């Protein structure tokens, strides 16, 4: 696998975590909105080894005077998004460092 492929996979991971973060933030913002149906993020693999995220309403029952958002699970989702983003960012940075080393070797 090439360095650019690894960096592309990590980029797709960061984008997927950003999508998850936006959905969780939207859920938290609408937690007190009556009849609000929380958004759920689903991850799927893509052809070259990356990941994609899609967001859709949960389809769960809501109440007339409340939403179906659980703030504790949304906070956990935020923490998981942060950790996932950081892990993918570390892979990206490592790939960039390797790329720089290879370029410096190539110049000699």
Give an overview of the whole structure.
There is one protein chain. This protein is α+β, with helices and mostly antiparallel strands. The chain has one domain. The protein is 59% helix and 13% strand. β1 and β2 form a beta hairpin. It starts with a helix and ends with a helix. The relative contact order is 0.22.
List the keywords.
alpha+beta, two-stranded antiparallel sheet, about 15% strand, about 110 residues
Largest sheet: 2 strands, antiparallel
The share of residues in helices is 55-70%
Strand-pairing-aware structural class:
alpha+beta
Tell me the total number of β-strands: 2
Order of strands in the sheet with most strands: 1-2
What is the overall number of helices? 2
- The protein's oligomeric status is single chain
Number of domains: 1
Compute the average pLDDT: 91
Taken from the alpha-carbon principal axes, the silhouette is elongated
Q: Provide the gyration radius in Å.
A: 18 Å
Low-confidence stretches: none
Instruction: Give the helices and strands as they follow along the chain.
Output: HEEH
Through-space gap between termini: 25 Å
DSSP strand content: 5-15%
Short description:
This protein has 108 residues and is an alpha+beta fold. Helices cover 59% and strands 13% of the residues.
Element layout with pairings:
Blueprint: H1 3-29, E1 39-45, E2 51-57, H2 71-107
Antiparallel strand pairs: 1-2
Helix pairs in contact: 1-2
